[in-house]
Amino acid sequence: MRRVVLDTETTGLNAGLGDRIIELGCIEVLNRRITGNHFHRYVNPERESEVGALKVHGITSEFLQDKPKFREVAAEFLDYIQGAELIIHNAAFDVEFLNLELARLELPPIGGHCAGIVDTLRLARDLHPGKKNSLDALCERYQVEHAHRTLHGALLDAALLAEVYLALTRGQDSLAIELDRPRQALGTATLQGERPQLIVIQPSAEELAEHVQLLAAIEAENKTRCVWRRFELAVEAR
Q1: What's the rounded Cα separation, in Å, for the pair 59 and 64?
Q2: β-strand 85-88 against 2-10: which pairing, if any?
Q3: Spacing of C-alpha 174 from chain mean position
Q4: Residue 43 and residue 23 in contact, taking contact as beta carbons nearer than 8 Å
Q5: In this predicted model, what pLDDT tens digit does every residue of 192-207 receive, in sequence order?
Q6: What pLDDT is recorded for position 29?
Q7: Average confidence (pLDDT) over 40-59
Q8: pLDDT averaged over the chain?
Q9: Given this model, what pLDDT does residue 149 score?
């Protein structure tokens, strides 16, 4: 499965009221490895950014004035994501903006161009209920370096999210890898049903004495025989 980690920056928070995309950032992940094949475009939204949004991303209208319109990069963008599974943090936000941009060009919604959409915010909430699950919080939790993230940027945030996604889903594909592995590639011991010899380390006399003293102390404090002693007596009675 080819995966594309995607992020956008916009002129504001409300696509339904005319806010537009100003930056697209995509990072390719193949076989759980970041390939270095990325897609990044600034987009002229043909409108001003709201003050609050400008404080978040710092991308001015003057900077975007000579950048291509979305319609000029749409075909290249759709070709890049074609057939991939999209990884997006708070996917509903980006998907709404993308779908409205595509609708203006009379193109199918984003879901018609990709294999599926995974929302890492939902994944994180399932794994860490009741905790902060912003991108910054997840970078902290999974020790992804993000000190350079003083302003939001689509490509920067997509790169951070790619690292977070791999950490969030670590081990998820191990069963599939085992199932897909050719039988000849399995070790001889597995094929023949052999098992490595179990190493048993016996306690010393001193350790046994300390164990007996600990059990006696537990029983004295609780005024009843401890579970361990009950088990030992049951074994001895067999």
Answers
A1: 8
A2: parallel
A3: 16
A4: yes
A5: 455 555 555 777 777 7
A6: 97
A7: 94
A8: 85
A9: 67
Half-sphere exposure of 31 (CA within 13 A, CB side): 2
Task: Dump the DSSP string for 143-202.
Answer: T---TT-SS--HHHHHHHHHHHHHHHTTTTTHHHHHHHS-GGGS-HHHHHT--PPPP--P
* Span 110-137, average pLDDT: 96
* CB atoms near residue 71 (< 10 Å): 13
Written as six digits, the tokens of 12 are: 């504001």
Q: Is the pLDDT of residue 222 over 80?
A: no
Residue whose structure tokens are 């409300």: 14
Residue type, 49: S
Beta strands in the chain (DSSP E): 2-10, 21-30, 33-42, 85-88, 116-119
What CA–CA distance (Å, rounded) separates 191 from 85? 36
Q: Which residues pair with 2 in a beta bridge?
A: 30
Catalytic center residues: 152
Amino acid identity of 227?
V
Residue 85 has pLDDT above 60, yes or no: yes
Can you state the angle between helices 120-127 and 154-168, rounded to 10 degrees? 40
Cβ neighbours, 10 Å, residue 92: 12
Is the whole-model pTM more than 0.85?
no
